[in-house]
Amino acid sequence: MNRPTALSHSELRDWLRLSRTIGVGPVTFRDLLRRYGSASNALAELPRLARRGGRIKPLSMPSREMAEAEMDALDQMGGTMLAACDPSYPRLLAAIDPPPPILSVLGDPTLFAQKTCAIVGSRNASAIGMRFARQIAGELGQAGILVISGLARGIDGAAHSGSLESGTVAVVAGGVDHVYPAQHAELRQAILERGAIVSERALGHRATARDFPRRNRIISGLSLGVVVIEAAKRSGSLITARYALEQNREVFAAPGSPLDPRASGANGLIRQGAMLIETSADILDALNGLSGSQLQEQEPDYRDHPVEPCDENDVDQARDLILGLLSPSPVHRDELVRACGLPIAVCSSALIELELAELAICLPGGLVTSAT
To answer: What's the topology of domain 91-293?
Structure first.
């Protein structure tokens, strides 16, 4: 495994172009670089692969000029663009499979060297829930823990406010330059002065519903543990907790009244094995025994040598079989491989073509769904 090395300007530009191409999610990005060895080589092959997958419309690929403009704009804001193979990329986030290929950071990117803990919860939070979030966040910050949250209303905003003095990181679903929600404009500015704002999305991007689960995955990925304070049964905070479990992170939950629907999700996490917390000491005791080594952290393997190309007739066969097997319900890639009876590399190539054609969606955790 190669040690991480910073990309050249042209390599970073190609990474950005590839990651911003429609149909190239983090999974397909990783697979393309493993297959072709560089973003430049992958970009050259994308139109052909998309046509093979069944795409009729031209593939939407950012031009070099568009990528340069985004890089320049972020630089003029004082921001930093980090590729997943960069030494400055947060190591905890690099350990998830796969990490976001590109992060835009406004503020201080060196903060991620600290121990980190996320605090998330209800947007429609109670006064006592927000008070508890501010208190916990402040005490964690005083103990040297960097607090991560999502800049949403309610618990997120309280967590950021409580940890401003020590520094806090907001992971946002839109571009780092987009102020959302508007009521947190002043809080966002305070975070920029004492912490950082992070996103995997392009500058100017306005978040849609599908962006928030991706944001939640980054929140948990940046953190050794996730604290849930007030979350309903169908809450984005529970998605963050699920990602944390998949990423082998600690999950903490504050108990609440069984009569309050805002507590049902957190109480459910406790029943399922999350650590019940009443004070910041409960969290610190658990985090003090963690360093990230329990994650079996590995450096991203984006610079592997290109693999041998698969026989295209085999890929055609796999593509047709996989397309018939997919449905809106997620299925694991391993199951698709078993059902096809073809080599993993062949099925992986077929999935790349199907996602570029927007007929399949490859999700983190090895899951695949149909795109229709």
So the answer is: Rossmann fold (3.40.50)
